[in-house]
Amino acid sequence: MANTGSFALSCRCRTSLTFSSLCNFKFFHPFPVRFADSFPSRINASTQSSIKYFASSSISSANDTFTWDDVLRVSPSPDDSSDLRGYFEKVQLCNRGSELQSEFLPFFIEGQIVGYIHNGFADRLRSFTDVFVFPKDSSYGGRLSHYVTLHPMLGTPEDRTSAVGDVVKSLGEEWIPGIRNELYPVTSSFGAPVFFSLERAAAPYFGIKAYGVHMNGYVERDGHKYLWIGKRSELKPTYPGMLDHLVAGGLPHGIACGDNLVKECEEEAGIPRYVSVKATAVGAVSYMDIDGYTYKRDVLFCYDLKLPESFEPKNEDGEVEGFKLFPVTQVADVIRKTQFFKPNCSLVIIDFLFRHGYISPEYLGYLELLRSLRI
Fold it and tell me: Which InterPro entries does the UniProt record give (predicted)?
């Protein structure tokens, strides 16, 4: 993937905003009004400069396909374990396009920002006059005087879900590829009331905040840690054949994070419930990525699960080609030196490296890299 952008602009973060209170969307922070309760909502100029510097190195990328043998051939260079540039590049791969924010209209429901919609995609939505409206705020003095909301007749979550769902079906694969018939909740922030539910594939086209669960499954042998890594099926519509976590999945409407993780553990790796319930919630990472008409604003809840040495994962849903067990240090080198991993998986593993002491404060750029995982 090409690196086409830098990180989000500095912002002013509030717990609730109306459209007329926005000073200028071009300079407004791209995340929802409240990101995640305790995470920093801005990156200072020093951090931006550090990220650009550390990500300036040339890192080899994956070809169209690669094998497990290619992964095994990635070896550390002498004395480069403290070189964080490869990690910074992976953060940038997930955080492109901040300079394009002015091309998006805020998407409001009941006075709350729930997403951002590209002008070009919004033009397509204008024909659905019984679903979407584009008010002009007379008190707003900036260049961007319109925003997107739903028709006032759509007053309940059920009505909104049905109406917007019909629009998504009408647009079809031509406009929204990869429709999965899986609903994501649309909220102003995590845990807030659900305004309606939206097809998963449509989430980045409406710029809503999406959530997922990612689990690092590891074992310990003779005082050393090893990570189970999956290789995605070549038939997957997204990131086919790339490396992945042992278990990961989006968080659909109506299921708690822990319950969703247990379900994904069974489907993706054959991990029985009595084992998966021992997974530990260890935090979250986040990123934003603008690409064409899509605006991905994702938060990934991270889990660790220490597995028995005798355990061997087995995929049950056909989405994983196979699993391999690697030393954590080998996985770190693969992330730093290749683009074999699905991009957002790199962020979760980098977070694992911090928490398990593989990245230490003595490394140049330590705080900047840590901060960049939680924009």
Answer: DUF4743, NUDIX_hydrolase-like_dom_sf, NUDIX_hydrolase_dom
